[in-house]
Amino acid sequence: MRMSKTLAGLSAILVCACGIAQAQAPKSPHETTKATIEGATISVEYGRPSVRGRKIMGELVPYGKVWRTGADEATTLTTDKDLQIGGTSIPAGKYTVYTLPGQNDWQLIVNKQTGQWGTEYDQKQDLGRIPLKKAATAGPVEQLTISIDKNPAGGGVLKIAWENTELTAPLTVKK
Asked: Structure pTM?
């Protein structure tokens, strides 16, 4: 009898602990995308939310308000060499990436503050704001996807795609 009460108590503790662990687990998977462009190692670490039947651009991601550009913790950009992204100098280091969505125009925000939750934005820490080129995707993109691709003409391209929108900014490594 005593053994069964002990086992029942342990089972209850395990069920509670598992419930707490699930409640604290991120809802969106996390990914790190990496590329080597002109000898520079560049990475972006971000949470990948899904559309799941929702209207994203203009609703879940409202126009005119700074967006965390991902889910959960702040999205980070790390580079081991100085970069030029869309005309803005980015020294080697680690940064937080936000975007400022617009119906037609978007901006990439590179921010010096790091280690914060994705919604903790401090404009005073902005390193720069970079215009993004907006285009329609070839088809629906269910999960937010950020990539760094080589540009055949030289340098690279930072791409952000979700729902039916693709945003790009050219990047080069400063010599």
From this structure: 0.84
